[in-house]
Design brief:
The chain has 202 residues and is α+β, with helices and mostly antiparallel strands. It has helices at 2-10, 47-51, 84-90, 126-145, 149-157, 160-169, 193-201; strands at residues 12-17, 26-32, 42-46, 59-69, 72-82, 97-99, 102-105, 111-120, 175-185. Strands 1, 2, 3, 4, 5, 6, 7, 8 and 9 form a nine-stranded mixed β-sheet that branches. A hairpin with a 5-residue loop joins strand 7 and strand 8 (111-120). Helix 4 (126-145) packs across helix 7. The longest helix is centred in the C-terminal third of the chain and has 20 residues, at 126-145. It is elongated, with a radius of gyration of 20 Å.
């Protein structure tokens, strides 16, 4: 018990720092004995709080501590997600929801899981629905492969890649919602469904 009390007293609060996309802002603190203990720690933060933009309150950014500099824990972005309660509000009757999931890779070999969310203005079936699904996957695999991970994250946060996706897909059918519900780094031992998807598009 005495040893546990002594260890507790030695612990200190250390700041966790966001990457440059968010101007190295402090996004949290953690209580540890030494700064090195923060490596690998993960935390989520609302994009609204990071950007002071109320319109981004439904988006969560996930960070991971990857480096210790002095007493600061520096992070990188490992995930982007629209919170589930917001996704449910998107769906209405007389529309088609396409909630897809696949793996792909950036130009600097970062392996990702991407989950686009498409909702059409009306209910659609058959060949039009199939064409939309195929084009969503093909467009994102091709586009992301041309980008570094940092470029992809920047365009995702700024909503640029979603706008590009909408512009491409509305040529097939009018859309009500065109979003990326989730994007995050995955381990290499995950099944590479994206390769199979890409082969189908050839």
């Amino acid at each position: 018990m005495a040893e546990q009390v002594a260890k507790l007293k030695k612990k200190q609060w250390y700041p966790i720092i966001a990457p440059k996309q968010f101007e190295n802002a402090v996004i949290g603190e953690t209580l540890v004995i030494e700064p090195g203990a923060m490596l690998g720690k993960t935390l989520s933060h609302s994009l609204m709080n990071l950007t002071n933009d109320m319109k981004r309150q439904n988006i969560s950014i996930r960070f991971k501590v990857v480096e210790i500099e002095g007493n600061n824990a520096k992070t990188s972005i490992i995930g982007y997600e629209i919170i589930p309660s917001s996704v449910k509000r998107f769906v209405r009757r007389s529309s088609e929801k396409m909630d897809l999931s696949f793996n792909c890779e950036t130009s600097d070999n970062v392996f990702l899981r991407v989950k686009p969310l498409i909702i059409t203005k009306n209910d659609i079936k058959g060949s039009v629905a199939a064409k939309l699904r195929n084009n969503i996957v093909a467009f994102l695999i091709k586009t992301i492969k041309k980008m570094t991970y940092e470029e992809f994250i920047n365009d995702l946060i700024s909503h640029k890649i979603q706008a590009m996706m909408r512009e491409t897909l509305t040529k097939i059918y009018p859309l009500k919602v065109c979003e990326i519900r989730y994007a995050g780094i995955e381990a290499r031992d995950k099944p590479q469904e994206a390769k199979a998807e890409a082969e189908q598009q050839k």
